[in-house]
Design goal:
Layout (H helix, E strand, L loop, with lengths): L5 E4 L8 H20 L8 H14 L7 H13 L6 H19 L8 H9 L3 E6 L16 E4 H4 L7 H10 L6 E5 L2 H9 L4 E5 L14 E3 L5 H9 L2
Parallel strand pairs: 1-2, 1-4, 2-3, 4-5, 5-6
Helix pairs in contact: 1-4, 2-3, 3-4
Bound molecules: magnesium ion (MG).
The site of magnesium ion has 7 residues, from loops.
Length: about 240
């Protein structure tokens, strides 16, 4: 008998590669924006992009977990000078954001993820705990999960405890019977472990665990996941 009843998962860099996803979404959004406006826009370097984001967060700290609003404000930053009418501008920003979000959901799952989730969903409660703004219900895997919690839902980012507390509240399953799976040593592994939640670390690149002398159970490929989990937590 497994002592695990609930398995929660991170999304970005756990189910798919986020860097290539965002780069594509960004590229296509820029093209869409320029086509709409009919002008070439100076987007700046990646450092400029990050600088704009951190300035916006400084002005409004809630943007740290409200990625949707942060994205809209970034779009507005680059495009507001092309609009004279405020309503038109607001509509444009909404539309541009919608376009970005659609592109952001064009993900390529790591091999085996969906098969593993399908198998697990018949035996365990499954949940999503993400700091990002991907929505499993837009990805044809929503039906496999009992719930999904984003930073916006709890106004906080992992490794803070709020995602985990909400998961316990929604599932009514104790931390000792919960397993959290994610790629991030701090946000996922330490965040969960500090609360007494069992953890498995998705370590795609096989990097060293450097945070303490107690490396988590780890896997590199989704095809290893179920065996490894059953070996460590029973089936
Ligand atoms: Mg992640």
């Amino acid at each position: 008998m497994s002592r695990i009843q609930l398995i929660t998962f991170d999304l970005d860099d756990t189910f798919w590669d986020i860097r290539s996803t965002i780069i594509n979404a960004e590229k296509n959004s820029r093209k869409w924006t320029e086509d709409r406006i009919g002008k070439k826009i100076k987007w700046g370097t990646f450092e400029d992009f990050m600088e704009i984001r951190s300035e916006l967060i400084k002005e409004d700290p809630s943007l740290e977990y409200d990625l949707g609003m942060l994205r809209k404000k970034t779009i507005a930053y680059h495009t507001n000078k092309y609009f004279k009418n405020k309503n038109n501008f607001d509509d444009f920003v909404e539309e541009a954001y919608k376009f970005f979000l659609k592109e952001r959901h064009k993900v390529t799952f790591y091999e085996g993820v969906v098969k593993v989730l399908e198998k697990l969903s018949s035996q365990y409660k499954l949940g999503v705990l993400t700091n990002g703004n991907a929505d499993v219900n837009k990805l044809n895997i929503g039906h496999l999960f009992n719930f999904s919690i984003s930073s916006m839902d709890v106004k906080s980012n992992k490794p803070n405890k709020h995602h985990f507390l909400r998961a316990r509240e929604l599932s009514q399953i104790n931390f000792e019977n919960t397993l959290h799976v994610g790629d991030h040593p701090v946000n996922d592994v330490l965040g969960a472990r500090d609360l007494g939640i069992n953890t498995m670390w998705f370590n795609l690149n096989g990097v060293e665990w450097e945070l303490d002398d107690n490396p988590p159970i780890q896997f590199k490929q989704w095809s290893e996941f179920i065996d490894l989990m059953e070996k460590n937590y029973g089936s």
